């Protein structure tokens, strides 16, 4: 798997909800009120593609876009963002596949992108020689479609046949087609699955496990499939044999295959019973056996026949107790999944958190964080269920991530990045620990005048909340510096420093201050940091963010006139809450692809899948809390709100544009000034291609410049 794609500017925070489409609510929470709140005058905007709703969208775009695009900064910002995003000096994220390095690439010539390959030796050079494997622009022209690349799943160990996922305009629903890497073409009469929210796993070269809506109504309340079937080569879909069937109250049921370099394979079915709880079943010889591991856990890979599991809850097994946040290995997973024997691999300290793991032929690479600073380790399995540990020599005070590893050898790719540290790619050998820098993004803005600091704010309940601030070295502490504050605060997603040429060029170079808050709800300090803000405890998250804003003012960095905030998706909900709870604190609020109507969210797109995070209106205490914090319901007349910039996308079939539309329409009815933009393409993202994403970025930084600098 190519993990370098995870490295996106912290500002966007857009795709994080994609991390898990599995799990749903507890059984007592699955009955949702059927009727909308009485008197909702903008319910018609939930008809996402309806003629009336789309006419409203076009009218809003025509009103707001000129106000931003006529600003003298916009044209320059757009040109700069586009140049950075299309730059040939970007690091092509490497993916080990079939003995070569593969990469998906977009630029000015390849707007939709090309899937390409080169040799490892060529890739390590300054100017790799690439061979195009699939040209999405050409495919889209031939098929008159707006194809967006969603990835490929390749059959191991041969790695010559891949299942390619293509999305129409960026939505989560995909079309899946079998592709031959040797001929660089789609397989005639190969596996082909029509558009749906679906997932697949290879059992062998001629057999798949497929989770999809086999009939239109076979979806959960969250809109995902719950029926997993075995599909053999040459069979029509209607002949697939059912392997596992969940229920409509699940979030989703999926399949996956784990393999290691020693030839072991586990074929698994997962049943998401809530967003954070899942059951795992071993599929072998046509039968299923359940893994007796905690529901709040995640499978991280297979090495030397040992299954790696990260724990989001404490667990006792085989006479051993493991703390929440640990990583363990199970040696007898294939032989006896019902009585697993677990061994500790990694245990976090009080300021630590497990982040990611990936396997090589003989080793396990683990990334963890200490006080939101990355560390990378290699663990090697040895006899008697033990592991050795070695830390890799990488820069300190930075974000570290796994780009890719290889089951056929012990080669690894890791990336390192920071706010002022251009993203750097390292290549190494997990067994020897040797590692060296091979590629780096050239500096895309002048960072010599800036400095990064970490501070701590005190939240309402006394909890210390860390945050990073990027500011000019010579900044005057006069309380009037233009400052943009961002956070996410949900789903155990950690927000760590990363290099963004766009943020640097369009904001930092203009002496803007940029702040990232590590509020509760995220995973920066492990599962407990996340759980502190679940459901009716969520006000802690909003108090944390507000506390950071107040701390910035107390340190005389900025004041409410010069303080703006931004967040997307769940971070968009955070922005909406701060907009309604503390309108006096911010002069600019950018709300991106947000959730905002929390009394209706369970009925909008995939909203029902997030009951484990937010709670449900079917539970009285949770209904009362959601009504108290829901931004849409809590807009009030006579309040001096700042003028927000709200943007969303029509093709977002995850959160959906309905929230942003209704919020903007209510502001309009109240006579509150606002800016609204809806990208017609792009899914749960800033656009379907680089040009659209660059436009959205330029609009956002133009807005902040207008509000905080002019």
Characterization of the model:
This protein has 710 residues and is an alpha+beta fold. Helices cover 18% and strands 33% of the residues. The strands form 9 sheets. The protein has an 8-stranded mixed sheet with strand order 32-33-35-34-36-37-38-39, sandwiched between helices. Strands 5, 6, 7, 8 and 9 form a 5-stranded antiparallel sheet that branches. A 4-stranded antiparallel sheet has the order 1-2-3-4. Helix 2 crosses helix 12. It starts with 50 loop residues before the first helix and ends with a helix.
Can you identify the CATH superfamily of the domain at 444-708? Answer: Alpha/Beta hydrolase fold, catalytic domain
Radius of gyration: 24 Å
The main β sheet shows up as: 8 strands, mixed
Number of strands: 39
How does CATH name the architecture of the domain at 444-708?
A: 3-Layer(aba) Sandwich
Low-confidence stretches: 1-36
Number of discrete helical segments: 12
**CATH fold descriptor of the domain at 444-708:** Rossmann fold
Shape: globular
Question: Structural class, please?
Answer: alpha+beta
CATH class of the domain at 444-708: Alpha Beta
What key attributes describe this structure?
710 residues, Rossmann fold, five-stranded antiparallel β-sheet, 12 helices, 39 strands
Question: Mind sketching the topology for me?
Answer:
Layout: H1 51-69, H2 74-85, E1 95-97, E2 100-105, E3 114-118, H3 120-124, E4 131-135, H4 136-143, E5 147-154, E6 161-168, E7 174-180, E8 185-186, E9 192-196, E10 199-204, E11 207-211, E12 227-232, E13 241-245, E14 252-259, E15 265-272, E16 278-284, E17 287-290, E18 297-303, E19 306-311, E20 315-317, E21 320-322, E22 327-330, E23 342-346, E24 352-359, E25 364-370, E26 373-382, E27 386-391, E28 399-405, E29 411-418, E30 421-429, E31 435-440, E32 450-458, E33 464-472, E34 483-486, H5 501-506, E35 513-517, H6 527-531, H7 539-554, E36 563-568, H8 570-581, E37 588-592, H9 611-614, H10 620-629, E38 645-649, H11 658-670, E39 675-679, H12 690-708
Parallel strand pairs: 34-35, 34-36, 36-37, 37-38, 38-39
Antiparallel strand pairs: 1-2, 2-3, 3-4, 5-6, 6-7, 7-8, 7-9, 10-11, 11-12, 12-13, 14-15, 15-16, 16-17, 18-19, 19-22, 20-21, 22-23, 24-25, 25-26, 26-27, 28-29, 29-30, 30-31, 32-33, 33-35
């Amino acid at each position: 798997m190519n993990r370098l794609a995870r490295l996106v500017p912290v500002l966007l925070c857009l795709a994080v909800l994609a991390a898990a489409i599995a799990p749903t609510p507890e059984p007592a929470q699955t009955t949702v009120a059927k009727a909308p709140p009485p008197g909702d005058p903008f319910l018609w905007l939930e008809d996402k593609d309806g003629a009336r709703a789309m006419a409203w969208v076009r009218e809003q775009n025509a009103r707001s876009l000129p106000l931003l695009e006529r600003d003298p900064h916009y044209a320059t910002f757009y040109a700069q963002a586009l140049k950075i995003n299309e730059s040939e000096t970007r690091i092509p994220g490497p993916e080990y596949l079939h003995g070569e390095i593969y990469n998906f690439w977009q630029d000015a010539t390849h707007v939709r992108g090309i899937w390409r390959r080169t040799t490892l030796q060529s890739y390590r050079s300054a100017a790799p020689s690439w061979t195009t494997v699939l040209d999405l622009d050409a495919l889209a022209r031939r098929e008159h479609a707006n194809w967006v690349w969603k990835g490929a799943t390749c059959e191991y160990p041969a790695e010559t046949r891949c299942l390619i996922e293509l999305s129409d305009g960026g939505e989560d629903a995909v079309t899946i087609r079998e592709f031959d890497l040797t001929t660089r073409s789609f397989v005639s009469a190969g596996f082909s699955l029509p558009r749906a929210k679906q997932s697949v796993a290879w059992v062998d070269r001629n057999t798949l496990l497929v989770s999809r809506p086999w009939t239109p109504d076979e979806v959960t309340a969250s809109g995902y499939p719950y029926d997993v079937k075995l599909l053999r080569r040459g069979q029509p879909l209607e002949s697939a044999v059912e392997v596992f069937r969940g229920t409509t109250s699940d979030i989703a049921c999926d399949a996956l295959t784990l393999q290691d370099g020693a030839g072991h394979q586990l074929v698994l079915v997962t049943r998401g019973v809530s967003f954070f709880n899942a059951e795992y079943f071993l599929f072998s010889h046509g039968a299923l056996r359940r893994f007796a591991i905690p529901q709040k856990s995640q499978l991280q890979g297979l090495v030397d026949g040992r299954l790696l599991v990260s724990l989001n809850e404490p667990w006792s097994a085989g006479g051993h107790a493991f703390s929440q946040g640990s990583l363990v290995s199970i040696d007898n997973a294939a032989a006896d999944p019902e009585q697993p024997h677990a061994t500790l691999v990694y245990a976090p300290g009080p300021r630590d958190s497990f982040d990611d793991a990936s396997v090589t032929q003989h080793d396990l690479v683990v990334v963890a964080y200490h006080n939101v600073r990355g560390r990378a380790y290699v663990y090697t399995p040895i006899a008697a269920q033990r592991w050795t540990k070695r830390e890799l020599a990488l820069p300190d005070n930075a974000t570290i991530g796994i780009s890719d590893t290889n089951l056929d050898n012990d080669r690894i790719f890791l990336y390192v990045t920071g706010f002022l540290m251009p993203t750097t790619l390292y290549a190494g050998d997990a067994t020897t620990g040797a590692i060296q820098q091979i590629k780096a993004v050239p500096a895309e803005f002048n960072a010599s005048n800036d400095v990064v600091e970490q501070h701590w704010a005190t939240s309402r309940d006394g909890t210390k909340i860390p945050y990073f601030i990027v500011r000019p070295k010579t900044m005057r502490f006069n309380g009037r510096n233009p400052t943009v504050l961002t956070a996410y605060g949900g789903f155990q997603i950690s927000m760590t420093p990363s290099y963004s040429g766009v943020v640097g060029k369009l904001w930092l170079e203009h002496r803007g201050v940029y702040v990232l808050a590590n509020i509760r709800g995220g995973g920066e300090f492990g599962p407990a940091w996340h759980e502190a803000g679940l459901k009716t405890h969520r006000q802690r998250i909003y108090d944390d963010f507000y506390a950071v804003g107040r701390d910035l003012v107390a340190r005389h960095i900025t004041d409410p006139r010069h303080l703006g905030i931004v967040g997307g998706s769940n971070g968009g909900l955070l922005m909406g809450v701060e907009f309604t709870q503390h309108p006096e604190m911010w002069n600019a609020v950018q709300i991106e692809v947000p959730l905002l109507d929390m009394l209706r969210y369970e009925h909008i797109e995939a909203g029902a899948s997030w009951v484990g995070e937010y709670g449900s209106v079917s539970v009285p205490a949770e209904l009362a809390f959601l009504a108290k914090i829901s931004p849409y319901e809590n807009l009030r007349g006579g309040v001096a709100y700042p003028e927000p910039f709200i943007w969303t996308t029509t093709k977002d079939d995850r959160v959906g544009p309905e929230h942003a539309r209704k919020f903007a329409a209510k502001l309009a009815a109240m006579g509150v000034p606002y800016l609204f933009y809806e990208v017609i393409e792009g899914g749960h993202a800033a656009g379907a291609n680089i040009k659209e994403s660059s436009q959205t970025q330029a609009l956002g930084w133009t807005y902040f410049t207008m509000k905080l600098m002019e």
